[in-house]
Amino acid sequence: MLWFLDDHPNLPRGVLAEMQEPDNDVGFSQISLFEIAIKQKIGNLPDFTAELDAIYLQSLRAGLRV
């Protein structure tokens, strides 16, 4: 989810293509947001400083479903 939202080069192009396919339903769990918060709190995501509500809204705008 973070790699997709950040257009990160580690996201395999095939996975990106599947995620961007309009006929595919791509979702994320609310637990993903919880895990992001934990990783941010313990310093495991130093380059990713976005607030959780912004991540959530960006995910929805990108077409991901909860």
3D architecture notes:
The chain has 66 residues and is mostly helical. The chain is 53% helix and 0% strand. It contains 4 helices and no strands. It is globular and about 35 Å long. The mean pLDDT is 91.
- Tell me the radius of gyration: 12 Å
| Distance from first to last alpha carbon | 12 Å
The largest β sheet comes out as: none
Mean residue pLDDT: 91
User: Strand fraction band?
Assistant: under 5%
Q: State the helical fraction.
A: 40-55%
Low-confidence stretches: none
Shape: globular
Order of helices and strands: HHHH
Number of strands: 0
Enumerate how many helices there are, as a single number. 4
- What class do helices, strands and sheet pairing give? mainly alpha
What is this entry, summarized?
The chain contains 4 helices and no strands. The protein has helices spanning 2-6, 13-20, 30-41, 52-61. The longest helix is centred in the middle third of the chain and has 12 residues, at 30-41.
